[in-house]
Design goal:
Layout: H1 15-24, H2 29-39, H3 44-60, H4 71-90, H5 116-121, H6 127-134, H7 138-149, H8 154-161, H9 165-182, H10 184-190, H11 197-205
């Protein structure tokens, strides 16, 4: 059987693995770009660079991919690891986290769930919500994307970002509360919450 990693006179990968790459990996570009935008806070230049680096690494490692398996998940893992490497390098620079406690308080007093923040965001995919996620400060946005979009555990996120699990939980909690506050009017309009007078009064008092 021919070795897929062989080269022709040093010219690069043979046609066979490249053909498989185009067939299985290229259709995932839109999904990769969307996830890159979430991770980078809507920074299109950084997102494009992240996707390009992901695809380059994927092509180099294509001989290790089993054809016909989940190419999307495999590529997302490469994209996430590529982003995390850059995130860790830039983490050495001090980042000032917002501490306005008023924006941390829940506005959804009328949602009767043990985890109203997580339950609420399970159902929201509209552009307004995406923009709200992208606007979060990076220390809050990145754990949120990994938890709510990639469905990673607290431990996995902590290991990737080199954070204690307690810090991961705290940042997720604060990120979800910030999104709640920003998206309250939208949530009422869409019928996700009833817009009780108590919640409206509390929210109005914070403006």
């Amino acid at each position: 059987m021919a070795d897929d990693t062989s080269t022709d006179g040093g010219a690069g990968p043979t046609l066979e693995p490249r053909s498989g790459f185009e067939r299985e990996a290229l259709p995932e570009l839109d999904s990769l770009h969307a996830r890159a935008l979430r991770l980078t806070g809507g920074d299109r230049m950084r997102a494009e660079d992240l996707v390009q680096e992901t695809m380059l690494r994927a092509l180099r490692a294509w001989d290790g991919y089993e054809n016909g398996t989940n190419a999307g998940a495999w590529l997302m893992t490469i994209l996430r690891n590529t982003f995390v490497g850059d995130y860790r390098r830039r983490k050495r620079e001090p980042v000032a986290l917002p501490v306005d406690e008023r924006s941390e308080a829940s506005v959804f007093f009328d949602v009767a769930h043990a985890d109203p923040e997580g339950t609420f965001f399970d159902h929201l995919v509209d552009r307004e919500v995406v923009e709200a996620i992208e606007a979060l400060p990076e220390p809050f946005r990145v754990p949120l994307v990994m938890a709510d979009l990639e469905e990673l555990s607290y431990g996995e996120i902590g290991e990737l970002l080199d954070l204690p699990v307690g810090t991961v939980k705290s940042r997720l909690h604060r990120a979800r509360r910030r999104l709640q506050h920003r998206l309250y009017d939208y949530a009422v309009e869409m019928g996700y919450v009833s817009g009780s007078s108590g919640a409206r009064s509390a929210r109005a008092g914070w403006r």
